[in-house]
Amino acid sequence: MLGRSRAAVLFALIVVAGACAPMHEAASDLHAGSDIDLTTVEGLGSLDFPNSGTADAQAAFLRGVLLLHSFEYEPAAQAFQEAQAADPDFGLAYWGEAMTYNHPLWQDKDVEAAQAALAKYAPSAAERRDRAPTDRERMYFDAVEALYGAGDKNEQDLAYMGAMETLSEAYPDDHEARAFHALSILGSVDGSRDFATYMRGAARAQPVFDANPDHPGAAHYLIHSFDDPVHAPLGLHAARLYSEIAPGAAHAQHMTTHIFVALGMWDDVVSGNIRARDVQDGQRANLDRPPNVCGHYSSWLHYGHLMLGDSAEAEQLMDECHAGVEAGHASHFYFAAMRARHILDSEDWSLAERWPADLRDGDDFWQRAAVIDSFTNAFAALRSGDPQPARDFVNTHGTSDDQQLLVHALELSGMLAVHAGQADQGIALLREAAALEDSLPFEFGPPTIVKPSFELLGEELLALERFDEARAAFRRATERTPGRTLAERGLRESTASGG
Questions:
Q1: How far apart are CA 356 and CA 297, in angstroms?
Q2: What's the pTM?
């Protein structure tokens, strides 16, 4: 659990740091007996990836691998296709394109597109393996065939992880094998944060980062490994470097802010996502696409402004997103999340009318957005004195199998009880919400539970003048979400009032 005392947090950091110590020793042996021949691609980083492609295909291929490490999947696929055009016999160029259709930390994979890319090299897995010119490159094909082969997604991911481990151990000097093995470990849990698994990923990425501090994949995967408030201090060095390693990759600029959010470093959250948005807008302009005013980077930028109290900047982003949102599209979900955070974190309940929500039924994006909007509307109405929307939300979602949704329903149930004069019952429900949220796998970034439950518990206890209990709740809130404005304010007020 993330809720722990300061001493326990420090102990965890010491243990992890001790566990990582042998990695630094191993780094010096990563290329023992061989020469590191780094190739640098301006704006994307550097790597050492010997391969059988012709000289004409190298620039595009290496650019594609670097883009792949920074999750710039579309331009990476284009780069690998350029390498294929320059050298149609270059097997790894087809491997690389196939790899762009696997997004392991986004729980997304396009098997059909990947298999089509591989089929351009040869029609079957056996023929592709036979055509690959070296044992090492055949092992890369073994791995990608496992990634898109038999079984369900989880079985494929585990088979791929095993194949990458075999490859990286057979060729211990191969940075790319180690880096992609690290990513395969992180992807093996399909989005569920398992700290032990994530530390294993870090242990594979760290030696690559030590041997080549300009390797974008090593920095990137270390950030993901340490992307929570407990371990984030261990990822700060990689986060600082990653923005300099790959200034031409929008995701690299954004990714640094995963560590900054986990540490409550709001100025850095804002500056990192401005850079990410600007790079992305430039990429989209080159493709004759409009700026993405309602997406992932805008959402994190907006949250950073909220935490800094930059009301004008946050409202401008909300207005732009409201004007540019596409119903039923990913932007619809981002708008709902931004709207919820703006209203709940500013505590200006009138804003629910300024940016009205579309609550129609529809596909997954509609449903996810509609639930967030409904909760936000109900919370704002209850704070404004109208309990009926909260009652309706609880009646609809109070027995949901979705654990996050159930947290929100418990929060509103607790508030309704407290406001009806049933303080003990209400606090018990809010404690139940907090315990449930505490039991869920940690999710990085701005809070997925848009009103963090320990924070809400603290606010209700503070209003009841139960200062010691409020202070304990706010402490847990600040451990889970360091630097959050409302949690920090509540901790100060409960401390001052409780003596």
A1: 22
A2: 0.90
